Amino acid sequence: MTAVDERAEILAAQRNDHSFETLWDELEWRGLIHVSTDAGALSELFEGAPFTYYCGFDPTAPSLHLGNLVQLLLLRRIQLKGHKPLGLVGGSTGLIGDPRPTAERTLNSRDTVAEWVTRLQGQVSRFLSSEGENAVRLVNNLDWTAPLSAIDFLREIGKHFRVGTMLKKDAVSARLNSDEGISYTEFSYQILQGFDFLELFRQYDCKLQSGGSDQWGNLTSGTDLIRKVEGQSAHAIGTPLITNSDGTKFGKSEGNAIWLDAEMCSPYTFYQFWLNQADADVIDRLKVFTFLSRAEIEDYARQVEEEPFRRAAQKRLALEVTTLVHGSAATQGAIDASEALFGRGDLATLDLQTLTGALGELKTAEAVAGTAIVQLMVDAGLVASLGEARRAIAQGGVYVNNVQLVADDTVLAESDLLHGRFAVLRRGKKTLAGVRVAQD
After folding, report:
1. Where does ATP bind (predicted)?
2. 3.30.70.250, 3.40.190.10, 3.30.365.10, 1.10.240.10: which CATH number matches 242-356?
3. Annotation-wise, does 189 bind a ligand?
């Protein structure tokens, strides 16, 4: 099966849960609504005739991340109801960047932003159907901002914005109260996003914009602008910022975002991220990030309560989301790698990409063939000293590529190398490290 065929099959299998009376009810149950314009009107809109809606994604990096995945899945759920999504990738807003709470963004070059626009458009299109009367349409706000002069922009759009209101926006006020301050460039971002909604309203009769709740000020800048210029109502939905049960920001791994691009976050790393979700968080993750039904999720909630040691919910979550993002083959590779690393499979069967992704999660020692294993254990951080390494081997707790070591003078042989360059060290059942041999 080709990647395109598999993606079509994944999309075809997705369903909204018909045990809910309305889509709005399901979105609320899944925890996808933090703030919105008129909830009653939105519920009626969802149940009515097909309408156009959108979400914007700025190319401030070469890949989308888990926060963006929340929006993509919300767009997909609304599309499954029969409505028409627009995926906006911001070729103009990406040149500026929305204000961060702490510091000014570094502006990327036009060529870089253009390249990232193309990459993000490809990612957006993978999660939404391009078939049928409500096929996704990709748009780029550079198309309508580039031809507009600064004078025309100020006269036609800027005059509808009040500085006092703009200053009250959360991101703006946070920056004004910081040592960094805020530039006029980032201060103007909300005007550009409001203009986007107005333009899409005019071109496509777009009635709804979604985004993270931290973007609420930018979302309502569009609804306000449409009301002032066109005298009509439009809607906005702000999804909650997802956090862990301990209050930390979700989707961060040692300070790095969990990206949707396999080159920036390997399928193995991605799978392990979901597999390691806490019991207190996993059910909420199933609601937001999977298309499992309410009945299925409630059954997993029972299993978490009664048999948490089985981690059935985490395994299903990791399977579903990794397959959604990376496909079934990469997901199976991640599962195989996880099993093999901990001695329940054959490391030699892992392809180079999967093995490299898995070892990327481990402390790794650089080596040459012929190096003593005890020295590699020290270099890789498995033990603090050569003496400790020898004692661990004597106790039968050290493995090279899942083969138990019996002699403490064993060296790394060419035959030990996986794909001619890697080896896996394990101490006990769960403590792992990698060895990498430089190639000529």
Report:
1. 252
2. 1.10.240.10
3. yes
